[in-house]
Write a structure and sequence with these properties.
One of its GO terms (molecular function) is ligase activity. By secondary structure, the chain is α/β, with parallel strands linked by helices. It has 14 helices and 23 strands.
Length: 451
């Protein structure tokens, strides 16, 4: 069978493309912009990508056109697909019907930590010899790809609450029907499609409704927004993670790089890994609980995380030049920014400054929804540098930052200012959910010339 994917460059749709190719489908796709790591993965999979405006794929008579949620009415390829009365589906529906049927689905949902927790789950199952399939919105270093077909029964999916397609406004995760479901946390986000936290909670409860009685829901014991979701009705056993929860931790290093794990106060083992931050410790507890539900012995699940290598764009060291370390991170919500910087601060050992560089690029950020809460999320940074697109109709409340902040209106201006201000022993954390104009490597190259 032949499928063509509109919007193939996104991490989710690119993952769908790789899964379809591995299952024997003939796969092509189109998009307006494509860059690593997805461009590399699609090229390695032998999947041809055409221009976003190119409608010649319809002449190849695909059996189905799979349409990503970034595509909307009025776009050339969407209108051509509808005019041709071509069979089409959303990515989540295609995934559910062609990959997830007859699989034991482990779904990881939440405002934050989905990629990290999904990667940990996949790695624990892999380390236990179970060869799981997965579709993750990032690249786990243990695997080097964001999607893999794997072998039955287990399939791990990062379960996003964003809407499915222009013709299906339900959250993606309602299509997945998990047997094991992780609910990491829940905050207001995606203001472009949700009007309130209650709207998001309703979608999360739709997910809860799909988990069977012989399944498991793993959730924190201190998230009131998730408690409200569960109060709407639950038909599935629940295990909690956190301090004094079913699955609990004891920090053996302040930065979270070493901790002990217990189940019902019974010590199971220690994790000593390259990750940092209490949020990752909590993510680890969720991952361990989920994989134990899949049949992995608890001590083996805990031990597997000692070999977990992390995720690209989650505090990934880009390089060091002139005794300045440059890190790349995907954080783009105030809570994620705060937890990333807290982890970086705790692990800062050389006495240098922690420098935060960020681009408020998400739809919610561009709408200015988090403008007032952003400053406090940078409290652990010693200095802040921001890029604000001049087309965005809002301003940062600069007086509310507790440290010096510099705002640039172009990537070049930001790069020049960083070169002027950075000092040896600085640790620079660059945060964006996009490519950020390639500033990570441009800055590294510029500093290397100076060193």
């Amino acid at each position: 069978m032949k499928i063509h994917i509109l919007g193939i460059a996104g991490t989710f749709m690119g993952g769908v493309a790789q899964l379809a190719k591995a299952k024997g489908f003939t796969v092509t796709g189109s998009d307006k912009a494509i860059y690593p790591p997805m461009s590399t993965q699609l090229e390695q999979a032998g999947i041809r990508v055409s221009d976003d405006e190119d409608c010649t794929f319809l002449q190849q008579a695909p059996d189905c056109v799979v349409i990503g949620n970034a595509k909307s009415r009025g776009q050339t390829t969407v209108e051509a697909t509808l005019n041709a009365q071509q069979v089409y589906q959303s990515g989540p529906q295609w995934l559910a019907e062609n990959i997830l049927q007859d699989r034991w689905v482990v779904a990881v949902a939440g405002t934050h930590g989905k990629t990290s927790t999904s990667s940990m789950v996949a790695w624990i199952l892999e380390d236990a010899g179970l060869n799981p399939g997965f579709l993750i919105g990032g690249v786990p270093e243990n695997f080097g790809v964001s999607a893999r077909l794997g072998a039955a029964p287990f399939f791990v999916v990062e379960a996003d609450e964003y809407d499915t397609a222009f013709f299906d406004k339900r959250s993606k995760f309602v299509h997945y029907h998990p047997r094991t479901c992780v609910l990491n946390n829940l905050e207001f986000d995606h203001a472009d499609i949700f009007d309130s936290i209650e709207d998001i909670q309703r979608q999360f409860h739709h997910l809860v409704r799909t988990v069977p009685q012989n399944g498991l829901i793993v959730m924190p014991n201190d998230e009131s927004n998730i408690d409200d979701v569960i109060a709407m009705g639950v038909w599935t056993p629940i295990q909690t993670q956190g301090d004094k929860a079913d699955w609990s931790y004891k920090l053996l290093a302040e930065d979270g790089s070493k901790f002990a794990v217990s189940l019902q106060n019974e010590f199971l083992g220690e994790v000593n890994w390259p990750m940092s931050g209490l949020h990752n410790v909590r993510n680890a507890l969720s991952a361990i609980a989920a994989t134990v539900h899949c049949g992995v012995p608890p001590k083996i699940a805990v031990d597997a995380l000692n070999r977990f290598q992390g995720i690209r764009r989650r505090m990934t060291l880009v390089g060091t030049a002139n005794d300045i370390e440059i890190y790349d991170d995907f954080a783009h919500h105030p809570t994620a920014i705060a937890t990333t910087l807290a982890g970086a601060k705790h692990s800062q050992e050389n006495g240098g400054r922690l420098i935060a560089v960020f681009e408020p690029r998400s739809n919610t950020m561009r709408m200015g929804i988090h403008a007032e809460t952003l400053p406090a999320s940078f409290n652990d940074a010693d200095a802040v540098f921001a890029f604000i697109d001049p087309q965005w109709d809002w301003q940062l409340p600069l007086t509310k930052f507790s440290q010096p902040i510099s705002v640039a209106r172009s990537y070049d201006d930001l790069l020049n200012e960083l070169q002027k201000q950075l000092q040896p022993r600085d640790r620079v954390v660059i945060m964006s959910n996009g490519a950020f104009g390639g500033i990570h490597h441009k800055l590294l190259a510029a500093l290397s010339v100076l060193s």
